[in-house]
Design a protein that fits this description.
With 148 residues, this protein is mostly beta strands. The chain is 7% helix and 49% strand. Strands 1, 2, 3, 4, 5, 6, 7, 8 and 9 form a 9-stranded antiparallel β-sheet that branches.
Length: 148
């Protein structure tokens, strides 16, 4: 997750190499397949203790300790790969259809641009009023291909 403040930008990330599952392209099966990720808010790292603390407070980690991201229905278009995303974060649920995923050497990458208002997040100032958070957040989803 990336964002900007009045004094610069920040990036908070979560990476798990322990989870693995399979999502098939253009699956014709009536059983919808999805990749579901339960991400503990406490597992996000933003680079330092103060940013970590502010990030957790902003995402209401005490009340909503888990973010859920589901990637559904990956399919190939004429030149792009699309997927549907279900996102549950800070008590809000958002469904985004036809999110574009770019193919990279190691897998797929999709980027969502969300507003703090959409997520019901308080984008007020942090660090005692010294830093103001901008109201847009970039959420990057990386899906890694399994080496065969």
């Amino acid at each position: 997750m990336k964002g900007k403040t009045s004094i610069g930008s920040f990036e908070c990330s979560y990476e798990s190499q322990t989870e693995s599952d399979t999502l098939f392209f253009d699956n014709k099966s009536p059983d919808t397949t999805s990749l579901d990720f339960e991400i503990p808010v406490s597992a996000f790292g933003c680079g330092n203790f103060l940013l970590n603390s502010d990030f957790k407070r902003t995402l209401k980690a005490e009340e909503y300790p888990i973010c859920l991201v589901s990637v559904n229905k990956l399919r190939r278009g004429s030149r792009k790969i699309y997927g549907d995303i279900y996102l549950q974060m800070a008590g809000k649920e958002i469904v985004l259809e036809k999110v574009v995923f770019h193919q990279l050497k190691e897998g797929l990458q999709g980027t969502l641009y969300l507003s703090t208002e959409e997520l019901g997040l308080d984008a007020s100032s942090r660090l005692g009023g010294l830093v103001k958070i901008e109201e847009s957040i970039e959420l990057e989803i990386n899906l890694y291909l399994e080496a065969s």
